[in-house]
Amino acid sequence: MKNLLPQGVALQGERGIAFVIAGPSGVGKSSVISALLSRDPKLTFSVSATTRPRRPEEVHGRDYYFVSEAEFDRLIAEGALLEWTVYQGHRYGTPKSEVIDRLKRGLDVVLNVEVRGAKAIRTANLGFPVVLIFLVPPSWEELVRRVRRRGTESEEALAERLRIAREELQHIPEFDYLVVNDDLEEAVARVEAIIRAERMRIVQCA
Ligand code: ADP
Ligand code: 5GP
Q1: Domain extents for the chain?
Q2: Whose CA is nearest to atom 9 of ligand 2?
Q3: Residues 125-145: what's their mean pLDDT?
Q4: How far is CA 120 from the centre of its chain?
Q5: Ligand 2 centroid to residue 92 C-alpha, Å
Q6: Residues 32-55: pLDDT tens digits?
Q7: Which of 113, 115, 153, 175 for mutating ligand 2's site (highest number of atoms within 8 Å of CB)?
Q8: Atom of ligand 2 nearest to the CA of 117
């Protein structure tokens, strides 16, 4: 196919792409991402650093790098984070090492970050395309059911997460795509469709 394209034209998928998935806590970001990763070897997950305590089913280095406050301070001081934020009293940040080298190697990177982080990754000027995907639940009631069912939050923390969720929904217009996570399989297929289309985008190259 390559020698059919005019000079200076390429497919976006020949290089790495950053796919950022945001959306309210409990909507299913982690569930969708883990299904995507198991099916597409070109996708890699950007493991964030966090000072939040580990949930029982979470694995250090797979879900997050669980670090102390002092270690997080060091990451900031060393300039090792692409962006970071405070969410519910805990710090979360994207290590540059999880993103930049992989994009340079032509791999795609999937990030699970909150809304401010998503916008920060877009404005970081990585030199690679950044696609912002917002995941929403089919209804507010269903979101509440899912966070409750996950059972990882106290009642107080849950109420705070829902308050943040309401606010996050206001930022939908700043995203490129909206995906409803009603049926998990369907939602995964929708995100896969976005990934495939973005890889087929025609871009100018030097
Ligand atoms: P997030 O990463 O966005 O906080 P999770 O992936 O942890 O959300 O999902 C929250 C809860 O909702 C989990 O218990 C998960 O199994 C469940 N869940 C995810 N997607 C769906 C879906 N489409 N239908 C029903 N439950 C879902
Ligand atoms: P949780 O505690 O449920 O794992 O995550 C809480 C929120 O932090 C979610 O919205 C998640 O997307 C976000 N988050 C996780 N890692 C990062 C990160 O590295 N940067 C930013 N900005 N947000 C993150």
Answers
A1: 2-46+106-204
A2: 114
A3: 97
A4: 12
A5: 6
A6: 999 999 999 999 999 999 999 999
A7: 113
A8: 22
pLDDT in tens, 152-177: 888 999 999 999 999 999 999 999 99
Q: Is the CB of 44 under 6 A from ligand 2?
A: no
Model pLDDT, residue 2: 65
Give the DSSP per-residue string, 42-110. Answer: TEEE-PEEE-SPPPTT--BTTTEEE--HHHHHHHHHTT-EEEEEEETTEEEEEEGGGTHHHHHTT-EEE
What residues pair up with 10 in beta bridges, in sequence order? 203
Superfamily per CATH, domain 2-46+106-204: P-loop containing nucleotide triphosphate hydrolases (3.40.50.300)
At 93-120, the pLDDT tens digits run: 999 999 999 999 999 999 999 999 999 9
Distance 9 CA to ligand 2 centre (A): 36
Residues near 94 by beta carbon (within 8 Å), at least 6 away in sequence: 46, 48, 81, 82, 83, 84, 111, 113, 117, 121
pLDDT band at 13 (very low <50, low <70, confident <90, very high): very high
Which residue minimizes the CA distance to atom 17 of ligand 2?
A: 113
